[in-house]
Amino acid sequence: MTAILEFWNKFITMLPELMEGFGVTVTIFALTLIFSLPLGLFLSFGRMAKNSLIRTLSKIYISVMRGTPLMLQLVVVYFSPYYVFGIKISNSWRFTAVIVAFVLNYAAYFAEIYRSGIESIPKGQYEAAEVLGYTKVQTFVKIILPQVIKRILPPITNEMITLVKDTSLAFVLAQVEMFTAAKQFAAAQASVMPLMVAGVFYYIFNLIVASLMEFAEKKLNYYR
Amino acid sequence: MGEKSLLTINHLKKSFDGQTILKDISLQVSRGEVVSIIGPSGSGKSTLLRCATMLETMDSGELIYMGEKAAQEVEGRCVYASRTDLRRIRRYFGLVFQNFNLFPHYSVLKNITDAPMTVDKVPKKEAEKRAMHLLEQFGLADKKDAYPFQLSGGQQQRVSIARALALQPEILFFDEPTSALDPELTGEVLKVIKQLAKEKMTMIIVTHEMQFAKEISDRVIFLEHGNILAQGTAEEVFYSDNARIRDFIGKLNS
Ligand SMILES: Nc1ncnc2c1ncn2[C@@H]1O[C@H](COP(=O)(O)OP(=O)(O)OP(=O)(O)O)[C@@H](O)[C@H]1O
Ligand SMILES: [Mg+2]
Fold first, then answer.
1. Is residue B149 part of a domain?
2. Residue A137 contacts B where some CB pair is shorter than 8 Å
3. d(CA A151, CA A160)
4. CB of B226 closer than 6 A to ligand 1?
5. ipTM of this predicted complex?
6. What would you report as the CA-atom Rg of chain A, rounded to the nearest whole angstrom?
7. What is the CATH number of the domain that holds A104?
8. Which of A87, A160, B109, B229 has the fewest other C-beta atoms within 10 Å?
């Protein structure tokens, strides 16, 4: 009985800070998606561009971002103002650097997902729209993109689930999010319990993300 | 060029990867005419329709709709009109594809109304009135809220014909409109096309349905190796003494 009470007390003490960390985790997650989803789309245009220079540059960018650790990219982005521009790194840059690095990294993954989605749409859809007189932009926005979104929802969900877990990498820039908070408690209490609690939080967060995406997929199931 | 000519193609040449597909095609189609294009596989029938509908660019020659030049020869080169001119000229024709190419995420009704509303800025009410009229004419009024995947191939093809007609084109092209269909479904599509012929719709139809071509066409064109080998009334072409044509027709009938 006392053991349970002791656990409960510890849990209550760390809950506020853990929740605060959780808030940061959710913020990193949301901001990354808000910026990287559109950026990824433009990057996929670059990847499929007629201009071979744009195409090659996009390809190299995507390959580097996917081929090097996100942790390394976080550090590079964080220190780049100093090494590239000689600007002293301020404290407020920390969070921005986390977001920038996550956005740059995830845009690369999303770009490849968009590309495979766009390339999977039959040529006949473009041709039908062209003969009917749709402009290129109308064709993409009204005819192609809705079909692409339906097709890429499953791989996008996978990336989102990975992103939830990846947010913990922000600790390398000493950005306090949920994992960092839990680790500090674990050290102070000499117990793995805080980390377990954090794990449960990540899991629940992902459960919510996955259910929302499943709901969206169902919504789009009205056609094939 | 007679003022009645709706479509004029002069000396159209087209090659892919150095291989000449259309050698020197000239063609005039008048208002109300129904023209069938027949010929062996690979003879360039689809390529001809795709050049006429500007899905492919011609290497040389002229393409004229209602006296307006979509493409012309300038110093031996094929030059297309400006984008705005082409947008206007594109409204003269419609194309029905072999595999329908309906928009899967739109209902039947929206498939038909969306282009008039988006491209021609037709008010929604008017576009829907037009669409319902066409659907009733084609016996599909009860399918207006269905999605393409819920329809049979024959129904999908009729919807795609309605979609093309909703833009009120002067001329309608068909590229083998029934060859993706099960035999028992071709009849309902052919019936719709016959109905349009009765209403004096100008049509150019690539088809392997010889009986249908015979019944419907004012003129039949036989294409082989990118050349017009023969053209004339169905009787003239079908009973031509050209051995190659007889061979082709004979094979289809056997
Ligand atoms: N985009 C392309 N690139 C290269 N070759 C092409 C292309 N489109 C068509 N061809 C070639 O042009 C030739 C004529 O093709 P086309 O599709 O016009 O024939 P068709 O008469 O419509 O045949 P079918 O009766 O089989 O439909 C074929 O040899 C084909 O391989
Ligand atoms: Mg063909």
1. yes
2. no
3. 16
4. no
5. 0.94
6. 21
7. 1.10.3720.10
8. A87
Residue B153 lies in a domain: yes
What does chain B look like in DSSP terms, one character per residue? --TTEEEEEEEEEEEETTEEEEEEEEEEEETT-EEEEE--TTSSHHHHHHHHTTSS--SEEEEEETTEEEEEEETTEEEEPPHHHHHHHHTTEEEE-TT----TTS-HHHHHHHHHHHHS---HHHHHHHHHHHHHHTT-GGGTT--GGGS-HHHHHHHHHHHHHTT--SEEEEESTTTTS-HHHHHHHHHHHHHHHHTT-EEEEE-S-HHHHHHH-SEEEEEETTEEEEEE-HHHHHT---HHHHHHHHHHH-
Probe site for chain B from A120, A121, A126, A132 (most B CB atoms < 10 A):
A132
pLDDT tens for chain B, 254 residues: list them: 445 799 999 999 999 999 999 999 999 999 999 999 999 999 999 999 999 999 999 999 999 999 999 999 988 789 999 999 999 999 999 999 999 999 999 999 999 999 999 999 999 999 999 999 999 999 999 999 999 999 999 999 999 999 999 999 999 999 999 999 998 899 999 999 999 999 999 999 999 999 999 999 999 999 999 999 999 998 888 888 888 888 888 777 65
DSSP-derived 3-state class of residue A50? coil
Q: Greatest CA separation found in chain B? A: 55
Shortest alpha-carbon distance between residue A122 and chain B (Å): 9
Range of the domain at B130: 102-168
Which atom, in ligand 1's list, is nearest to the CA of B98? 27
Largest CA distance in chain A: 77
**B202-206/B77-80 β-pairing:** unpaired
Give the count of domains, chain B. 1
Whether the CB-CB separation of B206 and B46 falls below 8 Å is answered with yes
Q: Structural domain tally of chain A?
A: 1
Q: Do A134 and B87 touch (CB under 8 A)?
A: no
Domain annotation covers residue B145? yes
Question: For residue B27, what are the β-bridge partners?
Answer: B9
B152 part of a folded domain: yes
Q: CA B127, CA B109: separation in Å to the nearest integer? A: 9
CA distance B204 to chain A (A): 15
CA distance A13 to B246: 94
Q: Is B207 in the pocket of ligand 1 (CB under 6 A)?
A: no
Handedness of CA B92, B97, B100, B105 (dihedral sign): negative
Domain range holding A181? 2-223
Q: Which residue has the tokens 């072999």?
A: B98
Q: Are A158 and A132 in contact (CB under 8 A)?
A: no
With both helix axes pointing from N to C terminus, report the angle between A178-189 and A2-47 in degrees, rounded to the nearest 10: 150
- How far is it, in rounded angstroms, from Cα B248 to Cα B237? 11
Q: Is B47 in the pocket of ligand 1 (CB under 6 A)?
A: yes
